Amino acid sequence: MSDLVMPHFNSEAEEARWWDAHQDEIADEFLASPASESPVRGATAKDMRLPIRVAIDPEDVPVMEQQALEKGISFEEHAARLFHAAVEAEEHRKAS
């Protein structure tokens, strides 16, 4: 296990840069860790993300890039947040 420690972030942009810089190491640690422990001290399993490939409509890409830029986060972080929001919306729809 690495000695990777999640620092305190002063902004979403700073946090996004940290996650982008460490995503491969975090994914490797996450996949190798038992379910009962978190590979990054100070992080929970909910903080971790598994890398996946998703086909995105080419017309959506520039819109998403602009939205990410406006939020000061990476394209990947913005895509992950949109995906999560869609999953939550679908679960809420099913529960209604």
Explain the overall architecture.
This protein is mainly α and 96 residues long. It is 56% helix and 0% strand. The chain contains 3 helices and no strands. The chain has helices spanning 12-32, 60-71, 75-95. The protein starts with 11 loop residues before the first helix and ends with a helix. 7% of the residues are buried.
Note the beta-strand portion.
under 5%
Radius of gyration: 15 Å
Fraction of residues in H or I helices: 55-70%
Tally of alpha and pi helices: 3
Oligomer: single chain
| Molecular shape | globular
In whole angstroms, how far apart are the ends? 43 Å
Order of helices and strands: HHH
Tally of DSSP β-strands: 0
For the residues shown, what is the average pLDDT? 81
Q: Kindly name the structural category.
A: mainly alpha
Task: Pick out the low-confidence regions.
Answer: none
In short:
It contains three helices and no strands. By secondary structure, the protein is mainly α.
